[in-house]
Amino acid sequence: MDLQPVTPIRTYVLVWLTLTIFTFITYVVAQVDLGAFNVVIALGIAAFKMSLVIWFFMHVRTDSPLTKLFCFAGFFWIAILLSLTLGDYFSRTWMPGGKFW
Amino acid sequence: MAELTHVQSEAHSPNLRHHFDDMGQQFDSATFGMWVFLLTEIMFFGGMFGAYTVYRSMYPEAFAATSNFMNPAFGAANTAVLIVSSLTMALAVRAAHLGHQKTLQMMLIFTMIFGLAFLVIKGFEYHEHWVDLKVPLFPSHWAWDGPNAPPQFAHQAQILFIFYFFMTGFHALHMVVGLGIMTTIFIMARQGKFSHDYYTPVEVSGLYWHFVDIVWIFLFPLLYLIGHTRQLI
Amino acid sequence: MSTALQEPEVQETPNYLNAEYGWKSWLFTKDHKRIAVLYLISISVMFALGGVFAMLIRLELLTPQGDLVNSDTYNKFFTMHGVTMIFFFLIPSIPATLGNFFVPMMIGAKDLAFPRINLLSWYIYIAGALFALAAIVMGGVDTGWTFYTPFSTTYSNTFVITAAVGVFIAGFSSILTGLNFIVTIHKMRAPGMTWGRLPLFVWANYATSLIQVLGTPVVAITLALVALERAFHIGIFDPAIGGDPILFQHMFWFYSHPAVYIMILPGMGVISELITCFSRKGVFGYSFIAGSSLGIAIIGFLVWGHHMFVTGMSMYAGLYFSLLTMLVAVPSAIKVFNWTATMFRGSISYETPMLYAFGFIGLFTIGGLTGLFLGTLGLDVHLTDTYFVVAHFHYVMVGGMVVAYLGGLHFWWPKITGKMYPEGWGKFSALLVFAGFNLTFFPQFIAGYLGQPRRYHAYAPEFQVLNVMSTAGASVLGLGFIIPLIYFLWSLKYGKKAGNNPWGAKGLEWETTSPPPTYNFETTPIVTEEAYAYAKHEEAHVG
Predict the structure, then answer these.
(1) Looking at the predicted structure, is the pLDDT value of residue B155 above 70?
(2) What is the pTM of this model?
(3) Which domains does chain B have, with CATH numbers?
């Protein structure tokens, strides 16, 4: 009984190579001072690596829309926590005399 | 009126639990259940990531200064190790699905070896911090001085290190649990419990393992690569 | 050999209660119905404990001076009252008892998706409760159930870590129950049981489970960080090193606000079942009630800052949290309108469960509306941390949730136990609860509006009359809770035997025996009709 399609070994190895290469890139880029972009690049690469693991290693590519929805929901909910909390901190300075912290 | 009619079900697999109608429903439920559990884990670690983000926004320079005392080489090595373990785990699940028993067992062993390697490297790291007096949880092992430690950040740097130990600590705890799970799966594999028709425990364990890998993929840049990394003291 | 006539042995139909005997068959059971009964007993014990603390609070507040106990002890009373009631009674209550029992039956399944995890979640609950009890026995906690820092992390001299660990552990019980329900409802519905035919009780438990799964882990990590900070004497909420106590509140309320929807949504699900049955009418606006459950679950995650308006949070954050709070009232209101419309032109009968349903609609509406007062920024500055807040949340939690729970218990008691409770006593207790409840909590709205602060063991003398009324009401309310305990237990031995469907209700659970067999259904049912398919002009009493 085939509950899921089988991914070829080649695909897995390619994903692994990509992940390793991007880890190396993250490490190298961090040595260079790009100001605010350091964070953006580092987190962007992390998000990309995470997507590869989820999409291929965790089979979400071939999973049902329900699984994809629940997977997405987790990140969306963290985004709620972060955005509304940071919204508080960042808007504190909008009032006269307000301090970020 | 609801009719009580017999629903066709397939021949009884010995692995079919009686409250399920068929193996497909059982497999589906188990994997979906693991995804729901991972959802809770996303929120658990996410809470910590959220708190970290708030403090990093508050104290960007203090947090950047702490990168002088982080060892990104260790962090990168750990990342590479975990990524390989994810590969071997994915191959293990694939082998279980195809009924390739020897490959399954081999890949499980490799996964566990890499997992153990991760913990060993972490141990070295923690030891280094202990010796360098960068463990704020124990007052006798915290000191913020020297040329790479701007004194105005003494307090806030403690916050970063507290996050470092709690986040990597909870992560390591999940790794230890993961190793326990892998050991159990390995024993079950040796006992010939898995086949093309029933490999659900391998599948859901794989999902857990990949998740723990993903948490580390984010921990690495956030804890090790914050500021402009410089030479280690 | 005796020559006296021997009565023929009455064969009991095999059901989940007599399938097996002995403590092992209960403590190692995988049957969701037995686990529901285990939970029922456990949460009743915790409810009683929480009630004892409530009586101690009300006793102290009979007089304006702090004369019964000192302030430290009083702080422990309201803390333990809150912790036991919220985490060990309200949060598990309906899902772990009525939900566990009936969600699988209502969808035509033989059990939940993960029966062993279901049992594990009960054991985890017990472990958490033992930690909480240990904290009480060792001397209590005085931080308030909200564990605000830095008092909880640094300055309190009570057993904060023990209590926090107990709540942390109980959280996992809640998470596992929610996980089980989500998977079960998605994957194990009987053929023909589409999402659009699910009883609204199932929709309510589904929405509740989503909240449990998404919110509880955040309070888990928050309390873990509090416990760790207290253990290591340093941590991320420590202002001495630059930590922010408001961050604790953000993280704490991110869960604890949705938690109140965990507490009320299952009660609303029960009310949908009761109103339809005792009006003998299909529900008005099924999809709106179902959708509003999801709406409450989702929007409920966006409003937590309304607990923090006066903490020093940004005024702009206060603005968006206040706006979203107004929004979250809409789905609740939709339910109340739809229940009312369901009753319109229905054939209404006044059995005990329906009396509780009426009580719910009135009391929850008052509680909900007063929530809007509190959600308004300007008013909240005046009302926050007064008895107005205390009255508000007791109206929704007790007047809403506990009343719904009692209604559901009475409604499904015959199905769970195979026995009827005495209807006359049932009606009497329902009226006692309603009267006692209002006498206890309505004066608190007034006292709070006039300025009596909460969490104080003493108050200004002008509030005494209101407090005496409140304490008197609490005694009546307590009686209203004790009498059902007695007659429920009495009915187990002496109650009239119940048929399969004493109320003539629609729903798969009423098509099995009372009590149901272990595997619920001989064969998986095939569902062909919509929920609440009561025929028009049906007689009020059937069976």
Answers:
(1) yes
(2) 0.94
(3) 23-224 (1.20.120.80)
CB atoms within 10 A of CB C131: 20
Query: Residue A96: which domain range?
Result: 64-101
Q: Does B187 touch chain A (CB under 8 A)?
A: no
Burial C310-349 (b: 16+ CB within 10 A, else e): eeebbebbbebbbebbeebbebbebbbebbeebbeebeeb
Asked whether residue C284 carries a pLDDT value surpassing 80, the answer given is: yes
Q: List chain A residues with CB under 8 Å of B49.
A: 78, 82
CB within 8 Å: C315 and A95: yes
B5:C182 CB<8 A: no
Judged by a CB distance cut-off of 8 A, whether residue B177 touches chain A is: no
Model confidence at B52, pLDDT cuts 50, 70, 90, reads very high
Token digits of residue C279? 């009006």
User: Which chain B residues are closer than 8 Å to A101 by Cβ?
Assistant: 58
**Do both A25 and A58 map to the same domain?**
yes
Q: Which of C110, C235, C251 sits opposite B162 (nearest CB)?
A: C235
For residue A89, the chain B residue with the least C-alpha distance is B54
For chain C, list the domains and their CATH numbers.
26-511 (1.20.210.10)
pLDDT at C1 over 50: no
Q: Which helix (H) or strand (E) holds C466?
A: helix C464-494
Which residue did the predictor score with more confidence, C226 or B10? Answer: C226
- Taking only the tens place, the pLDDT of each residue in C307-331 is 999 999 999 999 999 999 999 999 9
Longest dimension (CA), chain C: 89
pLDDT tens column, C381-437: 999 999 999 999 999 999 999 999 999 999 999 999 999 999 999 999 999 999 999
Of B5, B18, B166, the CB nearest to C523: B5
Distance from CA of C213 to the nearest CA of B (A): 6
Task: Give the Cα separation of B139 and C131 in Å (integer).
Answer: 29
In a shared domain, residues A44 and A69: no
Question: How many domains in chain A?
Answer: 2
